[in-house]
Design brief:
single chain, 409 residues, alpha/beta, seven-stranded mixed beta sheet, six-stranded mixed beta sheet, globular, binds S-adenosyl-L-homocysteine, binds thymidine-5'-phosphate, binds zinc ion
Length: 409
């Protein structure tokens, strides 16, 4: 039994789903490292007091974010466009006239802050994974290579003053040390400043049975209720929200100091109603989710076994972090999925975490099309299917498993 990571008073949480032993989702590896591969017990629980859905144990951050972090944000053209659009909105709505300052955590290769660097707007990125931080710095994005927390916040304030906007995409949900981060943000923001962050949304995960959003890096699965419960401890509250289609369904939250008395938008009230409709505060919702996950696994495994028995070839498309949950939970090995095609050079020639399916270049896919492509990058489906029309014209079929297991011809 673990205690809730959000509630200040010890609040015990029981798991509603257990995935068993899981490896590091982005831990692509070579054969020499197979026998020292790291595994942890992956269980998810719901705190009925603060409503936070959370991993009950997570590997040390240094196991996940280091000099060889395998995820490069800029591999997705659509994400670059997504961050360009939000950067324009921020410049229009949230920056002060005098020497504005934007701070971002999880800067990665600079995909968001490059828009501010190009416009000569004062900015600072904080990114602990050295290889991706170096790419950001090469692009002219000022980036500190370290973990963000209260101490980092105090140093930034001392050296560069407070910020108009604090931004984080797909990073807040990664950080176990979330209290130090929240306190640091409250310290770092100007009295009228805003925190804008986006992460995969619990409502989408429940509605679509997208259980592959659950992996080591995702310590938290946020909702309006749980985000408000966390940040109210630091004098902040949600003033606006905007659902996003990226990453399979995300939520963008805008928070401000309570003392600033910013108006709370109707969008927040509507989403609170939606969370009640989805039952996100109700433990039985998560029991139902577990049953849906088990059914989804059964259907996918049955389908892949039937295809194998017919002697047809299946190749995985995109070695996403999410695919690690699918391959390990469904026990998909290279008999069921011959290899995974991925455009990231760092992953090619390596093997997938846990199940050790080979990862190969896109050329290996396109020069010898398989009968089926298992779309591990389902969150990039539009972008991927648009550029892979030749695969379908040659008779290839897509297999997807979110929101349901099905074959698309
Ligand atoms: N914002 C990018 C990258 C998301 S991946 C995008 O949306 O595409 C998450 C990133 O957060 C990784 O690059 C990881 O190294 C970084 N990260 C993890 N813990 C962090 C922390 N405590 N402070 C700042 N960045 C962190
Ligand atoms: P993500 O789902 O965690 O964002 O990971 C994206 C991964 O998918 C990354 O390894 C690159 C890979 N990818 C491809 O191989 N081809 C593509 O067309 C896209 C969009 C991503
Ligand atoms: Zn709690």
């Amino acid at each position: 039994m673990s205690n809730c990571l959000i509630c200040k008073e010890p609040t015990p949480i029981e798991p509603f789903i257990s995935f068993g032993k899981m490896p590091i989702a982005n831990g692509f590896l070579g054969p020499l490292d197979f026998d020292k591969e790291y595994f942890f017990e992956m269980e998810v629980g719901f705190c009925s007091k603060c409503c936070m859905v959370q991993l009950l144990s997570q590997p040390d951050p240094e196991q996940m974010f280091h000099d060889n972090y395998a995820f490069f944000s800029s591999t997705s053209v659509r994400m670059a466009e997504h961050f360009r659009v939000i950067s324009d909105t921020i410049r229009r709505d949230y920056l002060s006239d005098q020497d504005p300052f934007v701070v971002e955590i999880g800067t990665n290769d600079g995909i968001f802050l490059q828009n501010f660097a190009k416009a000569n707007i004062r900015h600072l990125g904080v990114e602990p994974s050295a290889n991706v931080a170096a790419v950001a710095n090469q692009k002219g994005v000022h980036t500190l290579c370290r973990f963000f927390n209260l101490e980092t916040a105090n140093e930034i304030v001392a050296k560069q003053g407070q910020a108009d906007v604090f931004f984080g995409a797909n990073v807040m949900c990664h950080i176990l040390d979330i209290h130090s981060v929240a306190e640091g943000i409250a310290r770092l923001l100007k009295p009228n400043g805003v925190l804008i962050f986006e992460d995969p949304y619990l409502g989408d995960i429940i509605e679509k049975t997208s259980y592959d959003q659950i992996y080591d890096e995702h310590a938290f699965y946020f909702s309006i209720a749980s985000v408000n419960n966390l940040f109210q401890q630091y004098g902040m509250h949600i003033v606006d929200v905007a659902p996003q289609s990226v990453h399979g369904g995300s939520m963008r939250y805008v928070l401000a100091h309570r003392a600033a008395n910013r108006q709370v938008t109707d969008a927040v009230r509507l989403q609170v109603d939606e969370e009640a409709r989805l039952g996100l505060q109700n433990p039985s919702t998560f029991q139902k989710f577990r049953q849906n996950v088990e059914r989804s696994r059964e259907e996918l495994v049955k389908l892949l076994q039937a295809i194998r028995d017919q002697g047809k070839r299946v190749v995985g498309y995109a070695a996403t972090s999410k695919s690690t949950t699918i391959t390990n939970y469904c026990q998909l090995d290279s008999e069921l999925v011959e290899f995974i095609s991925d455009t990231t050079p760092l992953k090619q020639g390596k093997f997938s975490p846990g199940m050790h399916i080979p990862v190969r270049s896109h050329a290996d896919f396109s020069q010898n099309y398989p009968d089926f492509a298992l779309l591990f990058g389902w969150n990039h489906a539009q972008e991927i299917m648009a550029k892979e029309q030749a695969f379908v014209q040659r008779g290839g079929k897509w297999i997807v498993y979110v929101p349901e297991v099905k074959v698309i011809a």
